[in-house]
Amino acid sequence: MASEAASRPFGRRPYKMQSFRIWDINQKTFYLRNDQLVAGYLQMPNTKLEEKIDMVPIDPHTVFLGIHKGKLCLSCVKSGDDIRLQLEAVDITDLSKNKEQNKRFTFIRSESGLTISFQSAACPGWFLCTVVEADQPVRLTNNLEDSGMITKFYLQEDK
Amino acid sequence: MLSCRMRPAGCHISTSCFPRKLWGAAFILCTLVMGVPAFPTPSAESTGATGNCSFRGKYFKEELRLEGEPVVLRCPLLRSYLEDSANPQHLVTWHENSSAQLIPVGEPRVQTKDDALWILPAVRGDSGMYICRLREASHCEEIAIELKIFEDAEAVLSLISYPQTLTLGADGMLMCPDTQDFSQDKGGMGVWWYKGPVLLGGAGGRFHNVEEKRRLLIVNVSMEDAGYYRCVLAFVHEGRQFNVTRHVRLRLHKQTDTVPVIISPLDTISASLGSRLTIPCKVSLGTSTPLTTSLWWIANFTQIDSAYPGGRVTEGPRGEYSANGENFVEVPLNFDPVIREDLSTDFRCIVSNTLGFQTLRTTVKEAPSTFSWGVALAPLTLVLLVLGGICLHKQWKRRAGKAYRLTTLRTGFQNFHSIPEK
Predict the structure, then answer these.
(1) A58 pLDDT tier (thresholds 50, 70, 90)
(2) What confidence score (pLDDT) does residue B16 get?
């Protein structure tokens, strides 16, 4: 019975993976460079590089985040004292919240006005962020006071 | 990921003609004049004087800049410009590969600074491919970056501009993009924002120039704010002043999502044990699209499927409809049947979209029994009333008869007495 429930994690729930345009409050968008997610300013001919963020809600507060139609997922990986954001080649629709090993892919979303922030569930206190400088990797920060780190994003449904 | 547009011939020539450069990353120039642009293949291994260096092809992000302005090219092979610049274990060198014009070696107009290539200022002929080579202890890589230099004219606005998005009706900021190399501590003098010929940021208006952050604050963004903006930065380098211009195209985003509101069920639902029950969860979305809205039920914080694998309690099919321009989504929770355990279960309906979520708890309550003493005793009361009525009636009749006889007797008595008196 338990395996039956686990094999269809979203059951009859009409979950659709939703794709959003994402940009930080400094107007930087995401793109890939050397298989790394970076945030920067894109001129018109480069806008085709813009990465949309794919989201699957788990419960009211938590989501899985991915790019490339959910084929690459964002995760928080700890190694020693080092905490880093990683892109992993797993399908977002194969993730189930009940599995402990999938916790690193889980992000707690919190809205504030029109902006949204994502905190890693596996790395409490660490938020998805960009830095003020352009063309730098998207990362995680636990310092919300640092004015060089941007943790607030805008989302727009991608039609 | 990298495009493969380079030709083998170009690769061989472009790498073999460069002299080996020492630490310090001086600008290296390939003095090649070719009839057509020449590019190396991504897979080619250069084996010239520079040693084995794998070529990654053309970087997919182009640089489009204006003539007469400073240009800074950064090597995209570095994972992080900030962190890698402090790492002395690598050497970045720059090589130009352009068919249009040659830049003499050592010309002060072109320099390398902190791994980046600076052109102060750029001319139309600087358009072309620039190859950056990253040499580390264990490996060497090259990548080509395309630089396009344009005349600042209306016609090229759609090409060179940076799209940025603000939400209608809200306050928002535009950013003067890709200007970090011209910051205050590096000789930046200030930023001015224009829309068309109009300088923005005067007192009392809706536009505020947040100069130190290179942002333009727009209060209560409206439809007429869409279009092209220009930020101009004054920059001084070795005593010479330059302007750095960036064009921003403002796109407006209408926030169509509204916070969803659960309008039913009620806090408590009455049901009889053993009977079937359906509790609809109905959500008003306003003008939001049901597409971005997820709606589901949980029982004691567990998904319904997992909580009731036997299927006694299930989520019904989702319904979407609209009425008077307002969208609604509905998902029913079906019980077949309701059992005592349900009375102590925490059922919650949850709705979530881009703007937020709402959850509503509902409790199943045992419906008051249909058996009522009042109803059960009604016939008995009626019988008793009837019987009582009959009794009273008989009693009354008996009393009435007695009284008549007494009256008659009394009358007779009177008559009796009256007769002798006569």
Answers:
(1) confident
(2) 33
Residues of A within 8 A of B255 (CB-CB) are 114
Nearest CA in chain A to B168: A114
CATH number of B8-150: 2.60.40.10
CA distance A4 to chain B (A): 8
- Determine whether B22 is exposed, middle or buried from the number of CB atoms within 10 Å of its CB (0-12, 13-18, 19+): exposed
> Contacts of residue A97 in chain B, CB cutoff 8 Å?
none
B contact residues 185-224, partner A, Cβ 8 Å cutoff: 215
Closest by CA to B90, choosing from B19, B16, B25, B20, is: B25
ipTM of the complex: 0.89
Nearest to B255 by CA among B165, B174, B321: B165
**Cα distances (Å, whole numbers) of residue B143 to A34, B27, B54, B58:** 11, 16, 9, 6
∠ CA B32-B95-A135 to the nearest 5 degrees? 140
- Closest to B76 in 3D by CA, of A87, A85, A134: A134
Taking a C-beta distance cutoff of 8 angstroms, is the pair B238, B259 a contact?
no
Q: List the Cα angle A146/A32/B70 in 5-degree steps.
A: 75
CATH 2.60.40.10 fits B261-366, yes or no: yes
Q: Token pair for residue B392?
A: 């009273």
- B303 contact A CB<8A: yes
Smallest Cα distance from B159 to chain A, Å: 5
pLDDT digits (tens, 9 = 90+) for A101-145: 889 999 999 988 889 999 999 999 999 999 999 999 999 999 999
- Interface check for B80 against chain A (CB to CB < 8 A): the answer is yes
The distance of Cα B28 from the centroid of its chain, to the nearest Å, equals: 45
CA distance B365 to chain A (A): 26
Contacts of residue A135 in chain B, CB cutoff 8 Å? Answer: 74, 76, 81
Kindly indicate whether the domain formed by A17-157 is annotated with CATH number 2.80.10.50: yes
Q: In whole angstroms, what is the distance from residue B122 CA to residue B145 CA?
A: 15
Please answer yes or no on whether B80 and A47 come within 8 Å at the CB atom. no
Closest residue to B162, CB basis, from A25, A33, A42: A42
Residue B272 in tokens: 């009889």
Every domain of chain B and the residues it spans? 8-150, 161-253, 261-366
Chains A and B: how many Cβ contacts under 8 Å?
Answer: 129
| Residue matched to tokens 């991915």 | A66
B305/A157 touch (CB, cutoff 8 Å), yes or no: no
Q: Using an 8 Å Cβ cutoff, are B189 and B226 in contact?
A: no
Helix (H, G, I), strand (E, B) or coil at B373: helix
A32-53 pLDDT per residue, tens? 998 899 999 999 999 999 999 9
Measure the CA–CA gap between B201 and B220, rounded to whole angstroms. 14
What's the CATH number for B161-253? Answer: 2.60.40.10
